[in-house]
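Chapter summary example.
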Amino acid sequence: MAKLGLSQLAKISHRMRTGVEAGLDDRTLWRKEAQRGSTAHRARVQPVADAVDKGRTVGESLELTGDYFPELFVSMVKIGEASGRQGAVYRRLSEHYDHMLKLRSSFLSMIFMPALELFAAVSVIALLIIALGFVASMTNSEPIDLFGLGFGTVGNLFLYLFVVGSLFGSVALVITGLIRGWFGPGPTLVALKVPLLGQTLRLMSLSRMAWSFGMAIDSGMPAKESMHLGLVSSQNAYYQSLEPRIAKSIQDGRSFQESLAETAAFPDDLVDAVEAGEMSGTVTETLERLSNDYRDRAANLFRMITVIGGFMVMGFVMLVVAAAIILIYKRLVIDQYQQLLEF
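The structure predicted for these 343 residues follows.
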């Protein structure tokens, strides 16, 4: 079932923020939203508008759409309603999704040229296989078997495309699985230990966690539910796997700071910020500042990763081209030379 994309979530958050700040009520806002966008979007949002019209809260109404709206969005809307800070919540949500869009756009722009070069290299090799087969058919000679498996031109072409497609498909599957937590906390924990990449993932997760956790506390949400929202918002399978342990610690009467520190999974600045906030009664403000700091640091690291990733793709392109040249040289020159010696 289709879900809202980052761009749609950013636009909805911005519209809701503008409407709330203008003094519009929830019924008007969601009735208008049900009249926007594609037919499919309007159909998914209409039940929300109908439920709000009947007196349900927006958070409860959003749950009627299944997973069309992400859990982070729904949970934060509930927090905004409970705390009376809907405008602030929608503002932070719009900033969050805008930031994610900028990161994605920056990454795509950095890898565009290397990816284009990679596509060109793959295409050139495929065309070369076809050209060699065409030349062989025109000269009534035996087609050159590039891979040495006894396949003809068509077989070699399909084999090549299958290997390339499987390689890229596997990489895409692994990346998607890591992002969505399909493989559990283990791979995420390994990724967190990778230099630069791990630090970036950690900072992005902690930024989301600190912000949503602080907002949940500010709304008066119970301790366990506040921590649950924070961990879910991190979108980090490893941190989420720690929830039962943290929840038990909180249930046993320990503070947030003690419960987080016991796991030895969270950085000292987060634990210290939670402790300072609990002692001074400013948990929300302290965690919001820390969240912004994490976000800025993650953005800087992400820019470094895109640069390094671009060079890696270019290096891979050069490797593919070099391998193809060596393989063709072997089939065209070395094998022919050996045949002459045997003759």
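To summarize the output: DSSP finds 15 helices and no strands in the chain.
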